[in-house]
Design goal:
By secondary structure, the chain is mostly helical. It is 65% helix and 0% strand. Helix 3 packs parallel to helix 6, helix 5 packs across helix 6 and helix 10 runs antiparallel to helix 11. It is elongated. The termini are far apart. About 15% of the residues have low confidence.
Length: 172
């Protein structure tokens, strides 16, 4: 029994080290957790700071699942973007704003609920709805889509978006 004691101790140390290394990896989550990635990120935004969540999501492919959920119109994704976007780094913010602009014609209510009311913010409804750099087709589709949003909580953002789309006709 005595010769097995060092072997068992070494095995326990290796197992503990392996579990610690696995916990710090940035790779994909195990299949049981992967399906609820947006729920996990939502949990992070409520229990960790928004800045910490933004840093975590700014790693390669960190936002992929959230953007996929936003493209599907999932409200929890809009909540994640709205709470974390102000704390994201500049490159991530540009990418998210561009993605939101692209999604606007297909998911106007979700995108507007993820936007900010503050016109100075990068993720503002005015920035997202700006047709500058977007095609005339995008502008027309975005305008039509935004006019279908009738949520009273989004009224200010909807009006800001429509004004931006209509007043910058020469920008597209």
């Amino acid at each position: 029994m005595r010769p097995l004691r060092p072997l068992l101790s070494a095995l326990l140390v290796c197992l503990s080290a392996g579990l610690c290394i696995m916990a710090t990896q940035n790779g994909p989550l195990p299949p049981t957790i992967q399906g609820s990635r947006t729920e996990h990120v939502l949990h992070m935004t409520t229990h960790d700071s928004a800045a910490q969540t933004a840093t975590t999501l700014s790693r390669p492919h960190g936002w992929d699942e959230v953007m996929h959920a936003l493209a599907q119109g999932k409200p929890e994704a809009a909540h994640i973007v709205a709470s974390v976007l102000p704390k994201a780094d500049t490159r991530t913010t540009r990418t998210l704003v561009h993605t939101m602009r692209t999604l606007l014609p297909r998911q106007p209510a979700t995108v507007l609920s993820a936007s900010e009311v503050n016109r100075q913010a990068a993720g503002s409804a005015a920035n997202i709805c700006s047709p500058v750099g977007m095609s005339a087709t995008w502008r027309r589709q975005a305008t039509q889509a935004v006019t279908t949003v009738h949520d009273i909580k989004l009224a200010t953002r909807t009006q800001t978006c429509l004004r931006t789309l209509q007043n910058t006709a020469h920008g597209a």
